[in-house]
């Protein structure tokens, strides 16, 4: 220790005591003093008590759940790392796409780069076909000390109802990165809704479901190149000959799991035949059956595995009805017994062909395609057996996910064509029953026929009919897949456009507009949305923006924004690889000019049609141009067009010049330093040109808003000089601001206040007062008035009569009087201002609520006690909820100051317990927390504890009154807890008065038990047991059960002592036994929590000899075991 502290090291003391912050500081001081006495003053003392340790540990749930079994659900990253998908291969190939995906995911978790503005739970969706390494990519992304201790991994089905899922939601101290595998889109939406608002959590979901869902980042994992598969196999199995590796890489068709499985079986099975010399089918057959003497027959294996090829996942173990339907539909029992079927399934699980425990999946898609092809060659009617009304909905969905991979099998293509054309897919309002997902799957098999069916259904519909189509998601997803192909693009795009036009502002849940806009993304190559070139798509956009239809404008502007923001979908939601077909020939520009032309024409199209748009669409179009200019300004070809547009916008009567100037300043001060010199100078000169264009643009630039580029010290100095210069111009020629006053009075920026002060310093003759007053006639009553307020504040000392004259004139004017309270308070925050406001309210010139302007004067300490009491008396005498609420807020501001006088108890207790707030639903919106009421009550009780009884009485008498103070759960704790702490016996008499009515009894019992109260100590534990027994003994039959219902939760340290004594004393009363709970009602508990409760109860039973106690515990153990 001497070596540590003498070299300035840390002395770390850990105690498992519960310490308050004061006790902790005392301990640290004591240690420091001891070290100092020994001559060591350099040591840094750190002390961790239990509360600090718990708070710290909760930041690392992965470690907690690795070393404890307190909560069910989820595994830590260490346990997860042992899964085969994370171990094999030992080194996964690092392609550019995978590297970029991992970097983006890490940026999301760190909230850096493009994700720095996320202030909630970051959400990532990782999707792709089975066997591509999705889970491995996520594991590699988070397997870093920065993330690993926060990782919780689980299958989505198992996580839904587990204890941990609830704990992470409810416990504000918990931080976690939640990774959910096999997460359907419905589950993703549910978990996103559940956790989305918590910035202490992050959510990553993994799925084969390619549907678009809400997320901050969507990663779509595609097949690997053949060379990548060679690299993986060469590293993992160096003993396999290169020609064999090449063959496996070819057969695997981009699926690393398939390639690894082939190589693993090759190295384990003893075969003399060369892989190069045999057919693909032979290699697949070897994968299915090894050379073991007791290996099952190949024919049996292929027949029994065939159903797993046609379904993405099958709940084989847990869902008997699904298993029986599969066996019946594929006629397995005609040839094989249940025992043989089970043996084959287990054999293939052991070989790694089938993955999963209860839910089984044939994840190697090439093998699945091979088995489907073999089965369909024997009997194509299998597809009719599956697509039958008896097929369970979950299996039908699973079939829909897998059928696209049969789109290179002739029999499947023929069946898809016939089935699409002969099936009645639609009712009057959308898809029939559960067949929508199957249609979506078949759209990838035969897209032309699917488009024909959709044209027949949607084509004749009017907009009103389209609005009422239910279950549109499969329709939209089908059209999105079809639109990838050049042959079908325009047919699919026109239908998406039609749906988007029928999608009003309240129906974005189906997002036809978003999918249609995606079609116009400017990205190319693997991120392009279609094979069609952008300028070939352009006429569709032009048709929308040049029409006279407002809905077409809305849709067209969404697409234009997708283009000019240069974001598009970056591949998210674009089904490039559809089934086993070759990838589409996605658009790639021949040169950069093709992209520049696209941006230029779309930019000009939006600007050219500004005059066509209604107000909300005009604002949208303006935002598109101003918010997306920075990225486009990097181009020397586009810069002249952008600058010409900005000049035109400055001349437009409906465009705020400050918006144009701010957009330009953003380019100059954030981006231009990276531009070539000539381009940078062009933007710098343009900024000077439009800023100094005239007085109006200068005023907008430096006064209208606090521009982000002004945050540097240099820019702030420039702005200060410019504002001073503008003030000089205005005082020399006041007429300059006559046409500017409407927006100047509404502006609330800091610069607006600075200009007001600068004007006052120069306006020696107060000539501007009349001009500023007259300008108020043209603004709304809720205008900020910051300019005028700052002006009056600055002149009040030099000319005391001027503000009074101004205020007299405002009082006499029906419109100007709306601004009087704010301006008089802003000009002179004093008793005089407060008196003026009060007089004006009393005269009926302004509404009562304007008294709230005096709160600012109270907070600043400029309101005298005499003036406060005069206002308070007036408000109390008004005898209304509004008046009393104003008084509560004002009093809290007045008394919370350090130098505040003693609370006037008569006045304040009247306000806090006024009948309009307590006894009935208040005219004031009372709900949740009313912080001012709570803090004022705490101050009043702290001044004299007896005040608590005067406040508590009316509250208890009106408990449960909806919309009143008495209906707020926390109020009971704020008022009654100090009384119980001070004199529990006296306070208990007051508390039990509330047991007289059912509504108040339920709330008091819940409060005593600590339910819903943010406190470590349930209030019932503050009452001495002797007081409780004396009270119950008066009427045990009635009061015993009441006390039982007041018990804290079982996990609380004080639960058993009190529960044990209740059972000994009153355990022969049936209602006591019934109402004393060990498991909270309504909770969502996992098996682990039940086991822990059962174990605890069993330990307690073994320690007790009282028959009532043992009988009750045994009953509760049986209840718990029923859950288990």
Largest sheet: 5 strands, parallel
Strand order of the largest sheet: 4-5-6-3-7
Number of strands: 11
What separation lies between the terminal Cα atoms?
51 Å
What does this structure look like?
The protein has 1124 residues and is mainly alpha-helical. Among the domains are: 2-56, no CATH class; 59-222, Rossmann fold (3-Layer(aba) Sandwich), CATH 3.40.50; 708-795, no CATH class. The protein has 61 helices and 11 strands. It has a 5-stranded parallel β-sheet with strand order 4-5-6-3-7, with helices on both faces. It has a two-stranded parallel sheet with strand order 1-2. It has a two-stranded antiparallel ribbon with strand order 8-9. Strand 5 (176-181), helix 11 and strand 6 form a beta-alpha-beta unit. Helix 12 packs parallel to helix 14 and helix 37 crosses helix 38 (713-732). The chain is globular, with a radius of gyration of 37 Å. The chain starts with a helix and ends with a helix. 41% of the residues are buried. Mean pLDDT is 87; it is low at 568-573 and 1081-1085.
What's the structural blueprint in terms of helices and strands?
Blueprint: H1 2-6, E1 10-14, H2 21-37, E2 44-48, H3 50-57, H4 61-67, H5 77-80, H6 84-87, H7 96-110, E3 123-127, H8 134-142, E4 151-155, H9 156-159, H10 163-170, E5 176-181, H11 185-195, E6 201-207, E7 217-220, H12 226-236, H13 242-252, H14 256-268, H15 280-288, H16 298-310, E8 314-315, H17 320-329, H18 338-351, E9 359-360, H19 365-378, H20 382-386, H21 393-402, H22 410-422, E10 426-427, E11 430-431, H23 436-445, H24 447-458, H25 463-467, H26 473-482, H27 489-501, H28 512-518, H29 534-545, H30 550-564, H31 592-608, H32 615-627, H33 629-632, H34 639-650, H35 657-671, H36 677-691, H37 695-704, H38 713-732, H39 741-746, H40 750-762, H41 768-775, H42 786-795, H43 801-811, H44 820-827, H45 831-842, H46 854-859, H47 865-878, H48 881-895, H49 905-912, H50 915-918, H51 931-943, H52 947-957, H53 969-982, H54 984-992, H55 998-1009, H56 1025-1033, H57 1036-1045, H58 1055-1066, H59 1070-1075, H60 1087-1103, H61 1107-1123
Parallel strand pairs: 1-2, 3-6, 3-7, 4-5, 5-6
Antiparallel strand pairs: 8-9, 10-11
Helix pairs in contact: 7-8, 12-13, 12-14, 13-14, 14-15, 16-18, 16-19, 21-23, 23-24, 23-26, 24-26, 26-27, 27-28, 28-30, 29-30, 29-31, 30-31, 30-32, 34-36, 35-36, 35-37, 37-38, 38-40, 40-42, 42-44, 43-44, 44-45, 47-48, 48-51, 49-51, 51-53, 52-53, 53-54, 56-57, 58-61, 60-61
